[in-house]
Amino acid sequence: MQCAEARRHSNRPATGAGPAQGHCAHRFDDSGARAAAGSVVALWRYPVKSMMGEELNAAEVTERGLVGDRQFAVVDASTLA
User: Fold this and answer.
1) What are the sequence ranges of the domains in the chain?
2) How many Å apart are CA 52 and CA 69, to the nearest integer?
3) What share of the chain is helix, strand, coil (3-state, %, to 5)?
4) Residue 64 in this model has a pLDDT that exceeds 70
5) Which of 39, 40, 56, 76 is most buried, judging by how many CB atoms fall within 10 Å of its CB?
6) Shortest CA distance to 45 belongs to which of 53, 34, 36?
7) First vs last Cα of the chain: how many Å apart?
8) Burial call 31-59: b when 16+ CB within 10 Å, e when fewer
9) What distance separates the 2 farthest-apart alpha carbons in the chain?
């Protein structure tokens, strides 16, 4: 996936931070393969927004993020205007 395409599929808002316009933050090793930028120490999913999460050993990731993450929201009907 090219940088511009990756930004279009991101669910994070554009903040202007990061690489300059038209540049890519990917790093490649001497063989031309993409080099690791870091490692995952823990993976958490929050099925109900703003409530307790669950630690995962693995997760399916789609263009919208982790499957099941923030899938539900709880609303107190007495506070709706």
Assistant:
1) 43-76
2) 11
3) 10, 15, 70
4) yes
5) 56
6) 53
7) 44
8) eeeeeeeeeeeeeebbeeeeeeeeeeeee
9) 60
